[in-house]
Amino acid sequence: MIKQERARILAIETSCDETAAAVVVNGRDVRSNVIASQIALHTLYGGVVPEIASRKHMEKINQVIAEALRQADMTLDEIDAIGVTYGPGLVGALLVGVSEAKAISYARKIPLIGVHHIEGHISANYIEHKELEPPFLCLIVSGGHTHLVVVRAYGEYEILGKTMDDAAGEAFDKVARAIGLRYPGGPEIEKAAQNGDETAIAFPRAHVSGSAYHFSFSGMKSAVLNYLNGCKMKGIEIVQEDIAASFQRAVIDVLTKNAERAMEETGIRTFALAGGVASNGALKRAMEEACRRKGAAFYCPSPILCTDNAAMIGAAAYYEYCAGVRSGLDLNAVPGLKLGER
Ligand code: KG4
Ligand code: ZN
Fold first, then answer.
1. Which residues contact 90 (CB under 8 A, 6 or more apart)?
2. Which atom of ligand 1 is nearest to the CA of 281?
3. In which residue ranges of the chain is pLDDT below 70?
4. Ligand 1 atom, smallest distance to 143 CA
């Protein structure tokens, strides 16, 4: 059990296409959460352009931090530690946040804490659910990751399953593109699916042999591409809404099935969703239903805390801070950082 101290943390997140800063007190009290999204820029190219992301982070970072402090009504003098995402993510994007955090830490002599981005997503649950404490099961579904983990204690994770190929969000983005929807594809598919028939097309529910908990989404994406090609060759009209609804249902079925099995086999009856795809209402409802069947408590952050933000990094940094974790000024961006690694 870690000793929880009082700490006001300035958190910075620049791993992908959001420049974000937040002030979080004692891990769960969010005083500000500022997000400058670059989505509109990247949409023009159908996905995130790493070079543009880094450049935009550089332009925005100081402004975003100043705004986070202003909204929290604090100055750097009142900040006890700086938390920053140092991986995984785009190396050039991560470097902007890491360099900024190191500069502030050095200039102000404030402790620095490098945070794992996925640990941030998991910790988003602590912000809105004050009663949530480890141990619990967590399914993290984002643009870059799909992990089913047991959160044994703060900062202590056991990975049960992960994707063998594409992440769930990545599959949403790729399928959206194939059926003519904009980036990011997840919210677009969710919207289109509301007017579609989820039983219209029987896309496969891929299972990875040898593991009950791993995921595979690239086959599901290929099934959609094959279906589209088949329609084209046979001159069959494509109903975007039906494809969106059927694909979304297939992804949800696989995610809930593995999650239910994890509840059964671990006996853990507390379950949390996290990551950008967790802002999908249909997934949230299906998971809530699965938890009800298993008699488990269900947690999910509100959409703004599911997608990338710095408040979740502040929450994760707090528990690392209390555990005595401090990063040196040699902290570097680690684009392929694994969960549980330091
Ligand atoms: O967590 P996040 O903001 O960034 C990463 O760490 O990857 O997740 C972004 C991903 C994108 O793939 C996006 O399409 C997906 O989350 N996403 C959604 C929804 N909102 C965002 N997927 C399905 N339904 C949504 N409503
Ligand atoms: Zn993320």
1. 15, 16, 48, 50, 53, 54, 335
2. 26
3. 1
4. 7
Ligand 2 centroid vs 201 CA: distance in angstroms? Answer: 30
Alpha-carbon distances, residue 300 vs 127, 140, 254, 292, 307 (angstroms): 10, 10, 18, 14, 12
Of all protein residues, the one whose alpha carbon is nearest to atom 3 of ligand 1 is 307
What integer pLDDT is reported at residue 342 of this predicted model?
72
Residue 3 confidence (pLDDT): 83
Ligand 1 pocket test target in 307, 308, 309, 337 with most atoms within 8 Å of CB: 307
Question: What is the CATH architecture assignment of 135-300?
Answer: 2-Layer Sandwich (3.30)
Report pLDDT digits (tens) over 294-327.
Answer: 999 999 999 999 999 999 999 999 999 999 999 9
As for ligand 1, residues whose beta carbon falls within 6 Å of it are 16, 142-144, 169-170, 172-173, 184-187, 190, 275-277, 279-280, 307-308
Taking domain 8-125+305-322, whether its CATH number is 3.30.420.10 is answered by no
pLDDT (0 to 100) of residue 1? 67
- Give CATH 3.30.420.40 domain extents, the chain: 8-125+305-322, 135-300
The sign one gets for the Cα dihedral 97, 143, 184, 178 is positive
pLDDT given at position 2: 77
